[in-house]
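ATP/GTP-binding protein
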Amino acid sequence: MGSAPSLGERDYVRGGATQTAVKILVVGHFAVGKTTLIGSISEIEPLSTEETMTQAAEAVDDLKGVQGKTTTTVAMDFGRLTISDRVVLYLFGTPGQQRFVQMWEDMARGALGALVLVDPERLADSFPVIDLIEHYGLEYAIAVNHFDGAPLRDERALREALDLLDDTPVVTCDARDEKSSAAALTTLVRYLLDRTR
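Tokens:
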């Protein structure tokens, strides 16, 4: 009797089909909706490291332009989404504050790409995030999280303001909405597939 074949670290079997696990980062500046997006779309109970913000955080985290935020991610968020019989996405949400940047290197290791969430009212806050993603050599798509009451922005103006390459995907989404979040991730996955062909 022979031993059972071992599975590679990228594959596992469910219902007899081999699936490929794909690591995707969900990144963005502080209070842009990363935890919300992963929570809206994950097919498993998402791991969330949200903690109540304290007065000590007020001196460190810039709450300008942010209303009603009472919690913040202190480590990471994690969720899972099966997008086909063959592909499952593992979603890793990074904390948005500058003091957590040292964690990004470890989280970026092995990632295929990143969905960069952007608040159109705080575009300048996205520059350091995009710089980091480019530093780690990750392909990415931009998802403009449309907040209640915010005016829709012209895509061309957004591209220019963020200094994006012509082929970088830009989509508008509502991180609270499962279908909208799924559409943003689908845009990223299609882009990544096109880049690997």
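The CA atoms of residues 57 and 72 lie 9 Å apart.
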